[in-house]
Amino acid sequence: MTGFINVNKAEGMSSAREVAIIKRLTGESCGHMGTLDPMASGVLPIAIGNATRLFDYFLTKRKSYRATFRFGMDTDTLDTTGAVLSTGGLVPTLKDIENILPHFVGEISQVPPKYSAKSVGGRRGYDLAREGKDFELAAKNVNIYAIFCVEKVGEDSFVFDIDCGAGTYIRSLARDIGAALGTHAVMSALVRTRSGPFEIDDAIQTRELNAQNIADYVIPTQSLLNMESLTPSAAECKKLFNGLSIGCERADGIYKIFNSDGAFYGLAEVKNGVLKVRTKLC
Predict the structure, then answer these.
(1) Which residue in 26, 50, 139, 259 is deepest, having the highest Cβ count within 10 Å?
(2) 106 with 44, same domain?
């Protein structure tokens, strides 16, 4: 069994736990394409079998979130699961927030949360933070394609829709928006609504899956790859699938490659008129 399951991760469940459920049901090696914190829910693409070889391809795709930020509050984790550092700070108006948001669109510099999987001297940031160690994480550039404040919910909380590039920390975005408004802000809820081609409307919770129906929810790998296809002859396939290269007149780039009988095989690359298999996926 090879392909993807578009999981709607449950709030309170770890991403690793969701992967373990799919692994048990399929009996195949599995991996998720971009973790979600336990407090978050939403789209968690899980690759099955050889589809895990596409980790880098899917990890770099655009993502969309619906997040709730609570203003006037600060915690050590930048969300409401952490230890409270301060409360009672300024709560901005909706207009104040809308005026500041254009400054957060485009390529911006962002410092990851200390409670994150970022590595410092070979150790995870969250491990060092839990031990009370003093350390700093380097800022990195991330892309925010769009951000909108949807509505105010409660006395101090606002809902945001965010479309961003890979590697963006929504908790850090809450912190930085709060700072730009002269206050603190933390993330109190998060739903990932899209990850590359995976949409939340098509996602399934693992509690609804079992050994009898899981095959119905496996998405074929080739249907998710946005690239042109190649179908060499039987003789050419024999060479390619044994590690050899052949001549090819197609433009340089990555292609989906199919057997001469139409079965999907994987990815191949054309470079300077030469075709070679790059990744076997089925």
Answers:
(1) 26
(2) no
